[in-house]
TrEMBL record:
Domain Ketoreductase intervals: 6-195
GO molecular function: oxidoreductase activity
UniProt family annotation: Belongs to the short-chain dehydrogenases/reductases (SDR) family.
PANTHER family: DEHYDROGENASES, SHORT CHAIN, ESTRADIOL 17-BETA-DEHYDROGENASE 8-RELATED
Alphabetical list of CDD domains matching this protein: SDR_c (cd05233)
Disulfide bond among keywords: no
Protein name as annotated: Short-chain dehydrogenase
Source taxon at top rank: Bacteria
A matching Pfam family: adh_short_C2
Signal peptide region: none
InterPro entries: KR_dom (IPR057326), NAD(P)-bd_dom_sf (IPR036291), Sc_DH/Rdtase_CS (IPR020904), SDR_fam (IPR002347)
Keyword Oxidoreductase found: yes
Length: 252
């Protein structure tokens, strides 16, 4: 197993990519703290892990809140005795142009997608550094690298995630902490259905368009989880500051 004796935090752990990654990290031996705004859904994922013989706790938290992040770090340390891996994955999208976006919506998207990662790193880096290192993986997006239509706050926030990842890698590499982003294309999760709803489009047509890429299909959450496990594990020991694209060829 690639993550034996490792402790991991996964934010947005009850959602499509977060759940698949929580299960995949646990299957490789990691103890997992499943963190989500939806505490009951996080508890169901933790229960799934325990039913499969793994170790997991669930923590209800809003990742944009500093007191919540401090509590997540404290409770994970108390439960597992350390933190080796963090997957900063919670995210939201608003499918609007600059003209249509309110300041409140802009701030909420940046709070959940960007401030959350700054806050988690602020509180978890000292813990990792004291233990000799760790691996942080942040969820960016293809749209953080190339842009996309009718999602101005989301595209800006994911661009920030990609570059914040590089800056974190530079600052904390000397402490043995690797920081990388995983950048999915369209993945079969609730977020895509939410986008169809926000745009007022039929789900079927929206999902068919999402499959229009060289591999002729959307990604499945477990295919992002595989990349997360690799970045979390020592198999990627010389990889830091990178933006790994997992998108069926959609960006090329
Ligand atoms: N699905 C895609 O096509 C796609 C593509 C590129 C990037 N992403 C990114 O992948 C990540 C995971 O998204 P997903 O597709 O699994 O979507 P999802 O909606 O299934 O999961 C997101 C999870 O985050 C949680 N969450 C939202 N706000 C939160 C908050 N303030 N605090 C704690 N948890 C919160 C939600 O409750 C949910 O469980 C996001 O960062 C998203 O931007 C998704």
């Amino acid at each position: 197993m690639r993550l034996e004796n490792k402790q991991a935090i996964v934010t947005g752990g009850a959602g499509g990519i977060g759940r698949a990654s929580s299960l995949a990290l646990a299957a490789e031996g990691a103890r997992v703290a499943v963190v989500d705004l939806d505490g009951a859904a996080a508890e169901r994922v933790a229960e799934e892990i325990r039913a499969a013989g793994g170790e997991a706790i669930a923590i209800a938290a809003d990742v944009s809140s500093e007191p919540d992040i401090e509590r997540v770090v404290r409770e994970t340390q108390a439960a597992f005795g350390g933190i080796d891996v963090v997957f900063n994955n919670a995210g939201i999208i608003r499918r609007t142009t600059a003209v249509e976006t309110t300041v409140e919506e802009w701030d909420r998207v940046f709070g959940v997608n960007v401030r959350s990662i700054f806050l988690m790193c602020k509180h978890v880096v000292p813990v990792m550094a004291a233990a000799g290192g760790g691996s942080i993986v942040n969820t960016g997006s293809g749209w953080g690298l190339k842009g996309g239509g009718q999602a101005i706050s989301y595209c800006a926030s994911k661009g920030a995630v990609v570059n914040m990842t590089r800056a974190l890698a530079i600052d904390h590499g000397p402490q043995g902490i690797r920081v990388n982003s995983v950048n999915p294309g369209d993945v079969n999760t609730g977020m895509l259905r939410e986008e169809a709803r926000q745009l007022g489009q039929a789900e079927d047509g929206f999902l068919a368009e999402a499959a229009d890429r060289p591999l002729r299909r959307m990604g499945e959450p477990r295919e992002i989880a595989s990349a997360v496990v690799w970045l979390a594990s020592d198999e990627s020991s010389y990889v830091t500051g990178s933006a790994l694209v997992v998108d069926g060829g959609g960006i090329a």
